[in-house]
């Protein structure tokens, strides 16, 4: 397996863990997702398929499909995490239907919440895709 395959595999594995984790929290632990959590799922679930196909097909262009979703996911997860941990977005974000977006089902070590885990997953996928892009550009230049 070359470095391109390894990077694609790592990104895909991160998306697998993220999707399984989100399903575990909602379906097994019974945590009802808030509105912002649903939007993060909307961005992560297609990444599972896109990165899986990209790995299987050895598609060096998978970053063009995955990067927009993962970067939007970073922004959304960061806003959600800041909404939970600070008062920055309390006036802007009004989750009035269902579960409040400021709620914290878990708070490991005082800072690890579900949006934090989402932020980490989207960030890792983004880093892998940027690395893949740079390596692809480098290989094309050689």
Automatic annotation (TrEMBL):
Identify the Pfam families for this entry. DsbB
Provide any one GO MF term from the record.
Answer: protein-disulfide reductase activity
Q: Which cysteines are joined by disulfide bonds?
A: 34-37, 95-101
Kindly give the Gene3D superfamilies that the UniProt entry links to this protein.
DsbB-like (1.20.1550.10)
Q: Which SUPFAM superfamilies match?
A: DsbB-like
As for subcellular location, the record says: Cell membrane; Membrane
Which terms under GO biological process does the entry name? protein folding
Q: What is its main location?
A: membrane
Q: Which domain of life is it from?
A: Bacteria
Oxidoreductase keyword on record: yes
Q: What does this protein do?
A: Required for disulfide bond formation in some proteins.
* Family from the record: Belongs to the DsbB family. BdbC subfamily.
Report what the protein is called: Probable disulfide formation protein
- Species annotation: Pueribacillus theae
